Amino acid sequence: MSNEENAGTGRQLEVGILLFNGLTALDFVGPHMILAAAGMKVHLVSATSEPIVSDNGMVITPNSTFDNCPTRLDILLVPGGFVDGVMRDSATLAFLADRGANASYVTSVCNGSLALAAAGLLDGYRSATHWATRDHLAQLGVQVSTERVCIDRNRMSGGGVTAGIDFGLTIVAHILGDDVARFCQLAAEYNPKPPFDAGSPEKAGPETKAIFDEFIAPFDASLRQAVSHVLEQRTTVSSRPT
Amino acid sequence: MSNEENAGTGRQLEVGILLFNGLTALDFVGPHMILAAAGMKVHLVSATSEPIVSDNGMVITPNSTFDNCPTRLDILLVPGGFVDGVMRDSATLAFLADRGANASYVTSVCNGSLALAAAGLLDGYRSATHWATRDHLAQLGVQVSTERVCIDRNRMSGGGVTAGIDFGLTIVAHILGDDVARFCQLAAEYNPKPPFDAGSPEKAGPETKAIFDEFIAPFDASLRQAVSHVLEQRTTVSSRPT
Q: Left, alpha or beta for A141 (phi > 0: left; psi -120 to 50: alpha)?
């Protein structure tokens, strides 16, 4: 499926994936592999063409910037990770609001949903997010979904990290059909056999969840502050005299 | 689990992941996320510190080179992708042979197994590989496993692409225990729900497999030549007068 034209559309679909410092690479590398296997053109977009560094130190160079990213994307995708910086960055939020208003699909994986919400793109929509950030998403006024992949009109979102692969296959099927998605799944040998059944807090149990809660506490506090910041900005804007 | 010492070992474990042009990023980004969540230090190693470009155009900068990569790795990991160049590159094969001889675990995801075999590291071992490259691995004299994750003494290998996540959890459990692996699985929300059941050629069926076979044909021919090259080199070496 490396052909230049995506099956059934007559042209190559264009995807914009937001890159930012502190992102979780697996959030976007999963869907990137699937979308590229389906023949889509993927723009890895950041504010500038400077390399970004992932949450575990992986250095990735964007191939597109806020200035030269296509204005009309078929899919806008925001991965998660340390998204608190993005939620406070007016240039990134303006970019998301602009491309989101013009994109055919506005999507996220993991807590990338918080960035979409901060940009005002999830008002009145349902969205999934990483299980540990559901409260934050609700605070921002979004209807939180606990589905692996959530579809609400042209918004599509995956849950935490590895849900990006299920998201990728789902959106490919949605746009290009089941046969293309099945081809992508076979190429990725996506026949998962997790050695444990601990992929949700309910399944992992209270002891494993307690270890995670302690691990995530400092970041959770930063996220809480970022959510407050977004809510304050909204109040400031809405209380301005007209 | 971002602590500097891995549970039960008393020191931070060191992982070397080979980066090369044409690799499939998802092959290593899955296990990278899991191994880093388990507190391991990951070296992304290439011949030089120049960025490499993945099979779908992602630009990644190594943080280690053949010269400065630790000589004694706990885990050596080779991802797959367009590995034919690696199979012909004597500097890369010499690096793999050297670090492989000293590593506690010699591992691969996807057809990274072909590079390990070319470096002579799978002689007398069983190994998994991407389903579409099983014949090539057998040609190199390796006992091919169709398991999702194959363990044979200190060799551990995952099948195609997404098997890297299952591989990552399996090796973390093997070295650091089930509790650490369960923490990593919860962090990655690895609770897969593929929208289709097409992750193996048997499940995908003959029509989807035929599309994949056509897609992969040019690369398959290159791999076939690379396998012949490796076998010729072996014959040349073994037929030299002693």
A: left
pTM: 0.95
Beta carbons of A187 and B215 less than 8 Å apart: yes
Which residues in B lie closer than 8 A to residue A59 (C-beta atoms)? Answer: 51, 60-61, 63
**Residue of chain A nearest B32, judged by CA positions:** A56
Q: What is the pLDDT of residues B56-104, one digit of tens each?
A: 999 999 999 999 999 999 999 999 999 999 999 999 999 999 999 999 9
Alpha carbon of B19 to those of A27, B25, B49, B112: distances in Å? Answer: 20, 9, 10, 11
Name the residue facing A182 among B57, B149, B208 (closest C-beta).
B208
> Which of A12, A29, A148 to probe by mutation at the B interface, max B CB count within 10 Å?
A29
Please identify every stretch of chain A with a pLDDT value under 70, giving residue numbers as ranges: 1-9, 240-242
- In this predicted structure, what is the pLDDT of residue B238? 72
pLDDT tens per residue across span A205-225: 999 999 999 999 999 999 999
Burial B136-153 (b: 16+ CB within 10 A, else e): bbebbebebbeebbbbee
Residues with Cβ within 8 Å of B28's Cβ and at least 6 positions away in sequence, in order, are B17, B19, B77, B79, B109, B164
Instruction: Spell out the domain ranges in chain A.
Output: 3-239
Contact state of A161 with B30 under an 8 Å Cβ cutoff: no
A192 and B195: CB-CB below 8 Å?
Answer: no
- A3-239 CATH fold: Rossmann fold (3.40.50)
**Interface check A215 vs B, CB under 8 A:** yes
Q: What is the pLDDT of residues B131-179, one digit of tens each?
A: 999 999 999 999 999 999 999 999 999 999 999 999 999 999 999 999 9
Q: Calculate how close chain A gets to B149, using CA atoms only, in Å.
A: 9
Per DSSP, helices labelled H in A22-161 are 25-37, 84-88, 90-102, 112-118, 134-139
A194: nearest CB among B36, B179, B185: B185
Q: Give the closest-approach CA distance of A159 to chain B in angstroms.
A: 8
Give the contacts of A65 (CB within 8 A, at least 6 positions apart).
A45, A46, A47, A48, A49
